[in-house]
Amino acid sequence: MPETAEPGVAAAARVYDYLLGGTHNYVVDREVAAQMLRAFPMAAVGARYNRELLRRMVQYLIGAGVRQFLDLGSGIPTVGNVHQIAQAEVPAARVVYVDYDAEAVELGRELLAGNEFATALRADLRDPDSVLRAPEVRELLDFSQPVAVLMISVLHFVPDDAEAVRVVRRYLEPLAPGSYLALSHLAPAEGRTGALQQETRRVYNETVAEKLAIRDRAQIGEFFAGLELIEPGLVPLPDWRPEDPDYVPDEEDAPRQVGLCAVGRLPG
Ligand SMILES: C[S@@+](CC[C@H](N)C(=O)[O-])C[C@H]1O[C@@H](n2cnc3c(N)ncnc32)[C@H](O)[C@@H]1O
After folding, report:
1. Is 25 in the pocket of ligand 1 (CB under 6 A)?
2. Pairing state between β 148-152 and 259-265
3. Domain ranges (residues) in the chain
4. Helix, strand, coil % (nearest 5) of the chain?
5. Is residue 104 in contact with ligand 1, taking CB distance under 6 Å?
6. Which residue, judged by its Cα, is nearest atom 26 of ligand 1?
7. Which CATH superfamily is domain 12-242+252-265 in?
8. CA-based, 20 to 30 A from 168: which of 123, 151, 154, 205?
9. Tens digit of pLDDT for each residue in 186-227?
């Protein structure tokens, strides 16, 4: 797992923090972010759209009656974290943050001090059994009631396709009917060459601790097998339940080319 004491290598959590305008990053992370922005200028806008999407998804889930969240690959706490969005509506909403980045978890714990309904766990999400057995998860989440598993902008850091599918399945196994999976994922711009994303992947794979997998619509759709997709289905990030009632999808809109996202519900 990445250690804070090793700033010689960039880390996904800190590169993302920098792209969002945060301060928890090092020179090495900023250099990678600069390279990424040269290859993929919409990366910073994409990160902000992703964060906006997270807020809309959590608000939707709270509106749908969900009171428990397992946020996998939660990142360095920044503006609009899941517990802040959820607990603004329902103060007793429960949130377990999981990240393998030491700094993300340490900062998360500081932010959550005194919050009895939210906690941060340092773990590798590719080991679902350890996460699901962790005392933080068992004590805070009641698996007889619906839980929303959030995998927002994280599964592309699990480059092995079979492992990514297996990991998602395992998290869904113990969930009660009416639970949800909410996910966003880097995807090639549909109807385009995807050359920009390939370049981003090259920069990332050469410089950041995590390797990057960009998956297409069919591969991302596979994560939702057996789930009912909530309207509007698997769509570019800005198209998922936009707040602006006059929103019209625009093929040329750069943030629409960053990735795909969906929310699925376990039937029952
Ligand atoms: C791009 S950030 C996304 C943060 C947040 N979910 C969001 O959308 O705003 C990805 C996060 O996933 C974490 N991550 C990547 N691979 C992971 C793994 N195998 N286990 C746990 N965390 C992981 C990184 O440390 C980073 O904090």
Report:
1. no
2. unpaired
3. 12-242+252-265
4. 45, 15, 40
5. yes
6. 13
7. Vaccinia Virus protein VP39 (3.40.50.150)
8. 205
9. 888 765 556 666 777 777 777 777 788 889 999 999 999 999
